[in-house]
Prior knowledge:
Blueprint: E1 8-12, E2 23-33, E3 36-47, E4 52-55, E5 61-66
Amino acid sequence: MILAVRDKIHVIHRQLFDHDARRHFIGAVEAGEGTLVKVTGSLFAMDTKKNEFVRHDHEPRRRIISLA
């Protein structure tokens, strides 16, 4: 696997429609196996009134992400 533990990643969530929320997830790799990685980090969402990304909540989130 190319990613190692403690590597930082930036995941951009795909928008299927124009009105969908623009979200990004930024975190650090905790573990990986094959094409799956477990990541801990924060979710950022676009605030359309300010036209900037803001952290959604301050508690870290865990995600399992497929790289395939």
